[in-house]
Amino acid sequence: MCLFFRILSILCHQKPKWLPMKKSVSYLLILIISVLMIECKTQEKKAENESVWEVDFLDNFETFNPDNWQDQRIWVNNETHCYVPDNQYNTREVSDGTLKLRVVNAGKMLPCDNFDKHGNQHPETQYVAGRICSKNRKEFIKGKWTARLRMHSNGEKSMFPAWWILGAQNNEPPVQEPDETVCWPLTGSGEIDIFEHHGDYHHDMFTTGAIESLGECDKSNWESMRRNFPATLNEFHEYSVEWEGSDLVYRLDGKEIYRNVGQGDKYPEPMFAILNFAKISDSPMEGSWTMEVDWVKHEKRKS
Asked: Pairing state of beta strands 82-83 and 125-129?
């Protein structure tokens, strides 16, 4: 309705010079009706979308709940930091009702106990970071995943924060169940990126979309199904993905911004959530970077 009142105010104070009075009134009425119809349709669509969902998981981060999350120590993407557990170096702080995941320059070289999927150990590094996952805690088939989050800064070289989901049969650490034998990105270990920010290339921009599997271990197309979108990253926004029929629908603050048409059925497996802040390149950084998460939830369609 804000748009309606703005237009009404303008028109009431400035009659178009090219219209006589009667036609000006008709013009005003037509415009008002058109704006109201658009507004009503938008509200109806939003209400319809909200009415089909019910929350089956919500974490407001009043504390760090080990029933929902575990620290994930892993070496991927040639990242130059070491993931550390238990909020070491203040990399996974929960305070004032939010989660803060950080990359921190420790100021000295430290040993790292992170391993890649081939068993290689990460070398010493001065950078440490936080990464949590809901693997073997909260896993869901399809539905809708949403997180409300913000960056404290963005667009800096080597920044790589992310909010994403991964197939629960993934064979990367931690491996805790007998069926966790599927290599990325095959079915059972598929990846959907809900929010990803690459500071080397973007400022106030994020990437969303699914990773296309090429049918072999470690073979994928990162670009074919993902797109970049503008957002004020240092302000809180809601980033979500949902299954709608056979499509994957991506939303920013509840508004659809993108969809992977026909791709939803390629992710039939239970999936778990990951929140992490990575340092992706050798570019130096000082101090710390922070991604702040207000809440995470999963919703299922009402039966």
From this structure: parallel
Give the tokens for residue 54: 């019910």
Per-residue model confidence (pLDDT) at position 6: 47
Contact 273, 143 (CB under 8 A): no
The end-to-end CA distance of the chain, in Å, is 33
Which class would CATH give 56-301?
Answer: mainly beta
Distance from the Cα of residue 40 to its chain's centroid: 29
Mean pLDDT of 268-283: 97
Sign of the torsion formed by the C-alpha atoms of 240, 258, 182 and 129: negative
User: 22-26, 119-123, 191-195, 198-202 — which is least confidently predicted?
Assistant: 22-26
Determine the pLDDT at residue 118.
87
C-alpha span between 243 and 274 (Å, rounded): 18
Q: Where are the domains of the chain?
A: 2-49, 56-301
Check pLDDT > 70 for residue 9. no
- As a whole number of angstroms, the distance between CA 13 and CA 11 comes to 5
How many Cα atoms within 13 Å fall on the side-chain side of residue 87?
A: 11
Lowest mean pLDDT among 114-123, 154-163, 205-214: 114-123
Give the model confidence (pLDDT) of 115-157 as tens digits: 998 899 999 999 999 999 999 999 999 999 999 999 999 999 9
